Sequence to fold (380 residues):
Amino acid sequence: MGFATDVIHAGQPPEPATGAVAVPIYQTSTYVQEGLGRHKGYEYARTHNPTRAALEANVAVLEGGVAGFAFASGMAAIHAVMTACLKAGDHVVVSDNTYGGTYRLFERVLTDFGLAFDYVDASDTAQVLAALRPTTRMVFLETPTNPVMRLCDIAAIAQAVRPQGIHVVVDNTFMSPYFQRPLTLGANIVVHSTTKYLNGHSDSVGGVVVVTEPAVAERLAFVQNAAGAILSPMDAWLTMRGIKTLVVRMQAHDANGRAVARFLREHPRVARVYYPGLPEHPQHALAARQMTGFGGMLAFDVGDLEAARRVLESLKVFALAESLGGVESLACHPATMTHASVPLVERQRLGITEGLVRLSVGIEDIADLLADLDQALASL
Fold:
């Protein structure tokens, strides 16, 4: 069905016992069995839970995959992908401007288990291909990247590496399946922090993985059960509730994001704006081709740490906080918050300066958001 229909109905038929429209919260740890080897498909809640299963089925439809798997956080979802698909000695090519938590997991945890990572400017497909080794088993992409909004050409990269048996994984958190569907562009695994746009209300932490291949799905199901980093029934229910309004929320985020980007571009105290919806963005044409909207994430540079501090501490509608994708507008300082685990030299190379401010533009009245930014920038 259409996307706006699927967000509400996919994987969520009326509950058969009572006809409840909303999937119930099955807050149980175990299930009574009728006899040895005879049960209703549920034995233990770490392995299966009807609320979690409904969310997994829903997101799998939205992303166009064969199966979905929900985890306790976005990082738990990424960790599960790595352990399900890789073994010691394998090599991964990663987009260099990746989320700080992803970098921390790869460099400070998974390298201890024999995995090797190379970070390249994946906005240049040639650099991705040049980094491949005989041991490369995965290309891990963020697009747009966090926080300087560089894009990777998913279709071009997938077309080049998938025939070699290399997994193409895309973190689609910033765009959601409403604006971008990596699996239809050739990726075979997509991950989300459901904490962000899918939930959309800043009241749940979670992650999800959607895959296109049954063999990968089987392995992920095994890892999900074996490692046990599952999403709770309550968080699954909250995320499903959020997804039902994904279409209207993303449209509002996009409209406000475009307006804020245009405002900041013209402001005399802003040195640079990072937003793929601006025509001067170096990959604007790719963004228009690969995505159906530009979303509510952007960053801007005000020059130095003191200027960034004054702006962030002067904001009144935008809240100074980590995370993103909620209905409320948030602002953060990547260099000291989301990307603090990235070495200073690497941050500077990527453009994550001390003057960089990242915004998650919410769905409030745009006049209030612009007025808030204006008065905060007036403090400079």
Observations:
- The chain has 14 helices and twelve strands.
